Amino acid sequence: MTDDLFAKFEAEIRSGALAPGSRLPTQKEIALSEAVSRTVVREAFARLAAQGLTVSRQGSGVFVADTAEYRAFQITRDELNELADVIKLLEMRLAVETEMAGLAASRRTTADIGAIQEALQDMVEAIDDPVASAKADASFHLAIARATQNDYYVRLVDFLGLRLVPPRNLYLRDQPREAHDAYVARVLGEHEAIVDAIVRMDPARAREAARHHMQESLSRHSMLSASARIRDRASES
Fold this sequence. Notes:
The protein has about 240 residues and is mainly alpha-helical. It is built from ten helices and two strands, in the order αααββααααααα. A two-stranded antiparallel ribbon has the order 1-2.
């Protein structure tokens, strides 16, 4: 019910039916008109505010935000629980990471190299801990973003954070330990190739290494998605 109410008001705000600066009905009025509880209305209002669609004014009520027409880009963690959404993110990263690595290779400093290598070492040391490994992986990509000397790359990668790293258990569910070890070794090798090209200040090789890494990840998850579809069809027949 909260989802439905939020979606209704979001649609009215996005369409302009509720214009920026206009006042929303009170929670009591909405609860009566929509035949829902005050709790449902309160949660929907909280979500509207969190999305930047509304603002509260002390003693006056809730109003449509002046900037509501601008939708902020976001990817929630909940969206990345399904393979199809992970694949979409990997497709986007394929373009971003490729150019980011190239810029890092041409602009990196000695301090940048130290930060990138430190993150890679953290990944090696966390090889048996998927959570710690994912954090180190995210730090690795953030260090590369900083090496571009372009704050927008840093802000994008920092925003994505752990969303950058597909959950290992999503790809390796029900797989034996040997499969996990092989996967980790392969990913580390792909990261090492990126680092080597950046250290050598070779933008072309850095782009190729980053593209290869992302393409391999995309291929692995696409194959897993195809296998899942085959299993689903088999179970339905």
